[in-house]
Amino acid sequence: MEVDGRESSAVPYSVTDSVNTSLVHLQDVQTHFLHFLSLSDPDVLAQMPPLQRAHSLLLLAKATTTLFALKLRCNGVDPDDHPVKSELERLSLYQNKLERFIDLNKGSNSFH
User: Which Pfam family name is an example for this entry (predicted)?
Assistant: First the structure.
């Protein structure tokens, strides 16, 4: 059956379009994530200043936890009802602490 020059199917066009767009975005995430994973190499981390190293490790932890929460959601599990919620809260706490240290470091560097 054809509707407006397009073949109709059981799945609406808007849904397949959204899925295709999501797939493109997921491929972008994969590309950037693989690059970011290279920053977790122990040799690369050893060359970083301590605050930059802590920031990199925090971002890696947040990215993996967020991707896991997304996987849960895609499988029909609400991340708010899963232990991953406490991990996201813990990472948020660490992010706040790290931001305070970064701000303190910037402030102490401005006096030199």
Answer: Sas10_Utp3
Q: Any idea where the domains of the chain sit in the sequence?
A: 42-109
Say how far apart CA 15 and CA 19 lie, in whole Å.
6
Other beta carbons within 10 Å of 69: 19
The two structure tokens encoding residue 101: 């240290």
Its pTM stands at 0.69
- How far is residue 2's CA from residue 91's CA, in Å, rounded to a whole number? 51
Q: Tell me the Ramachandran region of residue 5: left when phi exceeds 0, alpha when psi lies from -120 to 50, beta otherwise.
A: left
Query: Are 49 and 106 in contact, with CB atoms under 8 Å apart?
Result: no
Structure tokens at 27: 């491929």
Query: pLDDT tens for residues 38-82?
Result: 777 888 889 999 999 999 899 889 988 998 998 999 899 999 999
Give dist(CA 36, CA 49) in Å, integer: 17
Other Cβ atoms closer than 10 A to 26? 11
